[in-house]
Design a protein that fits this description.
Blueprint lengths: L1 H14 L6 H22 L7 H21 L3 H11 L18
Helix pairs in contact: 1-2, 2-3
Length: about 100
């Protein structure tokens, strides 16, 4: 799921998506960031967490849910949701073609 979110954010930036899709980018970024935090919490017992950290992350999640509600009916959001659950369906990034040598 994190890979789908990260890839979605990259594609959003590369494709210069319209401002109307910015909330979808935020949803993907927030999901990825909070999933990383959860993995740290699950597997790194040396990490110290504060109440302020937790409150910030809850606010981020709340904002992401609000953003999702604002874009959930868009086709791009439906595609994102599909790829979250079925990542093998996500189109692979176009391979970078080498630039011709100008010598």
């Amino acid at each position: 799921m994190a890979k789908v979110c990260e890839e979605s954010v990259k594609r959003f930036c590369i494709a210069h998506q319209p401002v109307a899709l910015a909330p979808l980018k935020d949803v993907a970024q927030t999901f990825s960031e909070l999933q990383q935090k959860r993995h740290i919490a699950d597997y790194d017992s040396s990490t110290v967490w504060t109440k302020a950290n937790a409150e910030t992350w809850v606010e981020q999640a709340d904002t992401a849910f609000k953003n999702w509600r604002s874009v959930q009916s868009l086709p791009q959001a439906q595609d994102f949701l599909l790829y979250l659950f079925l990542p093998k369906l996500m189109p692979r990034p176009e391979p970078k073609t080498p630039k011709p040598d100008r010598n």
